[in-house]
Amino acid sequence: MSEIIKEPIEKYGLSQKDRPKNQFSKVGIIGCGDVGRNIARVISSHGIDVVMVDINEEHIDMGRKELEKELDQLIDHWGMTAGEKRLILSRIKGSANYNDLADCDLVLESIKSKSREDSVNVRKIIFKRIEEHVSPHTILATNASTIVITELSSDLEHKDRCVSLHISTTTPDANIVEVVRGLYTSQETYENVLKFVKLIDKIAIPVEESPGLISVRLFVSFINEACSVLMEGVGKMQDIDLTMRNGFGLPLGPFEMADKVGLDKIIKWMENLYDEYGDRKYKPSPLLKKLVRANQIGRHVGKGFYTYDDKGNKIASALLERKTYQI
Fold first, then answer.
1. Mean pLDDT along residues 122-139
2. C-alpha span between 191 and 319 (Å, rounded)
3. What stretches of 171-233 show up as alpha helix (H) in DSSP?
4. pLDDT tens-digit profile of 137-166?
5. Residue whose C-alpha is closest to residue 259's, from 145, 178, 166, 170
6. Which of 50, 88, 317, 318 is most exposed, with the fewest beta carbons within 10 Å of its own?
7. Between the CA of residue 198 and those of 175, 207, 235, 240, 258, what are the distances in Å?
């Protein structure tokens, strides 16, 4: 019997160098907070590798644990299988080193900051750090909604590859991405970003560069007016929420939505918009300020307009517990 010759098949295939590379095979995200984790989950669920960069390993570990908890909640509500969870987590890597962004096709900044001035300065520093570690062809994007990309990219060497990419994470079914090209953004960058949005099964909404875009400008006005209606005694909080849910088909009423987004975040958006436009409609309601001062900033801390249990389920109205909402 002739000897069986075993030969590896790898040499008959394309070499690693010659294999075709997907245009978006790896995406970097700066920030492991709520928004950054949600975006990482969305992107990785579409077969794209993600590296989440934060300031230290402690933040990264905390972000990883929170992500696992969020995925487990989806499994509990039949929104995902255990196998899908493992696949998503296998594609997400945490790092405190910007060097790990080197082979990313797109890097999305998604940090949390306190004031507009702080937000702009910190983001500019982050963009410069990213530019030092990525190729000139890597797209640089911000998820910020009240800061314009032209301002953030003004000091960069390759301004033409910068774009604003606001991925909505307010509701689970949100499938839109507001795409804003800045003053320097090239047509090639813009078209490639549209391809990326399509790749993650989202609908691209072209938006002219404007602080607040479409979503935030309308959203904060909606919340502010709901607070005015409540303070004037026109209706009770639960009834206002019920009216907007049932009457207009919204998944959440304005106060429920505010608790989910975070009252501190809403106030920051409004203050940024007021600084930009000077319009009183963007002045945060005294009711919002009162709750934020008491650190009752929403669902993630267990209390905002409503009170929540450890799983984020609504228990009661925090305002009714105090039996007053007068200022």
1. 95
2. 47
3. 187-199, 215-231
4. 999 999 999 889 999 999 999 999 999 999
5. 170
6. 317
7. 10, 16, 42, 36, 29
Best CA proximity match to 175, nearest among 165, 183, 187, 167: 167
Question: In this prediction, what percent of the chain has a pLDDT beyond 90?
Answer: 75
The ranges assigned to domains in the chain are 26-206, 216-321
SS3 of residue 16 by DSSP: coil
Split at pLDDT 50, 70, 90, the class of 174 is: confident
Token pair listed for 150: 């032209």
pTM listed for this prediction: 0.84
pLDDT for 288 beyond 50: yes
Q: How many CB atoms lie within 10 A of CB 232?
A: 8
The number of beta carbons lying within 10 Å of the beta carbon of residue 265 is 18
CA angle 197, 94, 136 (to 5 degrees): 55
Q: What is the mean pLDDT of the segment spanning 265-278?
A: 93
Task: Report which of 95, 37, 42 is spatially closest to residue 65, judged by C-alpha positions.
Answer: 37
Instruction: Tell me the CATH number for domain 216-321.
Output: 1.10.1040.10
Residue entry with tokens 């026109």:
234
- Does residue 317 contact residue 238 with C-beta atoms inside 8 Å? yes
pLDDT the model gives residue 324:
47
Give the pLDDT confidence of 87-113 residue by residue, as tens digits. Answer: 999 999 999 999 999 999 999 999 877
- What CATH number should be reported for the domain whose range is 26-206? 3.40.50.720
Residue 28 and residue 94 in contact, taking contact as beta carbons nearer than 8 Å: no
DSSP at 26: E
pLDDT value of position 9? 46
Radius of gyration, CA atoms only, the chain: 22
